[in-house]
C-alpha cells in the first residue's frame, strides 16, 4: 500500500510517497501547479515499484487527488504526466505486476495519508538540503503559464520546444522505433537525454554558457521569451536543431 501526496506553499512544492515505514520525498520547482505535483507523486510511486517491488504482483496506490485519478481515466487526451503513468502501468501489467489506484479523502485522520501529507510539507521547504530536487518540466504547466501568449510563431519551433519539454526527441528516443539500445553521449559516455544535453554535457557546455542557457532545466525550457530565443539559437548553432 502506497500513500502519495503533494504540498504547495509560497516557498516551494514538495511531494511524498509513504510505504509502511519508508518515506520518499522530493522537492519540485515552485512554478508547478498542485495538480501536476499530485500527478508526479503518483508517477514517482510507479517508478519506485518498478525498481523496488518487481516481485509484488498487486500494488495499491492511494491519493487524495481526484483530479489525478480522473486524468488517468482519460485515454483520449491525457496530460503528459498521466500518459507516462499509463504507459508505465501497462508495462508493469504485462509483467504480471498490477497497479490499482484508489482515492482516499484528505484530512480525515487516515494514518498513511496524514503521514504523506506531513512528509510533502517537509519536502516543500527550500532549506531542507536532504530532499532531492526534481528538475523536470511538464508541458501542461508550461502551457498554462503562457496560455494565450504566442511566444513562438513558427510551428516548427513550437513542436521542437514541446519535444524538449516532455523529454522525447528524435535524437534521444529514435532507438525505440529502431528497436535498438538507447543512444549514448559519445563524449560523456552516458545515456543521451534532454536533461543531459542542456545541463550536463561537456560537449555543449561552452555553447550553453555562450548563449546564456540557464543551468536549471525548468528555466531553460520555460515560458521566458528571452530564454526561449536563446535556446533556439543554441540549438541552431550547435547543429542540434534538425535532430530534435
From TrEMBL:
Name of this chain's protein: RNase H domain-containing protein
Classification via SUPFAM superfamilies: Ribonuclease H-like (SSF53098)
Example GO molecular function: RNA-DNA hybrid ribonuclease activity
Native source species: Aphis craccivora
Domain RNase H type-1 residue range list: 1-125
Database matches in InterPro entries: RNaseH-like_sf (IPR012337), RNaseH_domain (IPR002156), RNaseH_sf (IPR036397)
Amino acid at each position: 500500500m502506497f500513500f502519495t501526496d503533494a504540498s504547495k506553499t509560497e516557498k516551494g512544492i514538495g511531494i511524498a510517497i509513504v510505504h509502511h515505514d519508508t518515506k520518499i520525498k522530493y522537492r519540485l520547482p515552485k512554478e508547478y501547479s498542485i495538480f501536476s505535483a499530485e500527478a508526479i507523486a503518483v508517477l514517482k510511486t510507479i517508478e519506485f515499484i518498478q525498481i523496488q517491488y518487481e516481485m509484488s504482483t498487486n500494488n495499491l496506490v492511494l491519493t487524495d487527488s481526484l483530479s489525478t485519478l480522473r486524468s488517468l481515466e482519460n485515454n483520449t487526451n491525457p496530460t503528459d504526466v498521466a500518459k507516462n503513468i499509463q504507459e508505465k502501468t501497462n508495462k508493469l501489467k504485462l509483467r504480471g505486476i498490477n497497479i490499482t489506484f484508489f482515492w482516499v479523502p484528505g484530512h480525515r485522520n487516515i494514518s498513511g495519508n496524514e503521514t504523506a501529507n506531513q512528509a510533502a510539507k517537509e519536502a516543500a521547504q527550500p532549506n531542507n538540503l536532504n530532499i532531492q530536487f526534481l528538475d523536470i518540466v511538464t508541458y501542461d504547466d508550461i502551457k498554462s503559464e503562457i496560455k494565450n501568449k504566442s511566444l513562438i510563431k513558427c510551428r516548427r519551433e513550437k513542436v521542437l520546444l514541446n519535444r524538449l519539454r516532455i523529454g522525447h526527441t528524435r535524437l534521444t528516443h529514435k532507438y525505440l522505433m529502431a528497436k535498438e539500445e538507447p543512444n549514448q553521449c559519445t563524449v560523456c559516455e552516458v545515456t543521451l537525454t534532454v536533461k543531459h544535453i542542456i545541463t550536463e554535457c561537456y560537449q555543449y557546455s561552452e555553447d550553453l554558457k555562450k548563449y546564456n542557457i540557464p543551468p536549471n532545466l525548468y528555466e531553460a525550457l520555460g515560458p521566458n521569451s528571452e530564454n526561449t530565443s536563446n535556446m533556439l539559437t543554441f540549438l541552431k548553432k550547435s547543429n542540434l536543431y534538425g535532430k530534435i
